[in-house]
Amino acid sequence: VQLVESGGGLVQPGGSLRLSCAASGFPFSQYGLSWYRQTPGEAHMQVATRSLFGYTDYIEAVKGRFSISRDNAKNTLYLQMNSLKHEDTGVYYCGVPALDQWGQGTQVTVSS
Length: 112
Prior knowledge:
The chain is mainly β. It contains no helices and 11 strands.
């Protein structure tokens, strides 16, 4: 299993970023996928999840601002992040919970 995140960077508050996660080595369309965030001193936290049936769920702090989507034809998971806030800063990982697999992460920094 390989999961490679990209799209992170430095953005001002109120800005947007789109994270991508290119997946390989497993039947992508048959698994639910999630985005996680880790910040210094805090536990790895699930931010958004999307099931193989299209069900989505988000933590309260990002509802209405973040959107998780997937393109099964491209084996790619996305996280569209809008109206970014300082507290969204962290390393974002994509993961396949059922396989206990994670990518290497991509840094998102929201700062003016």
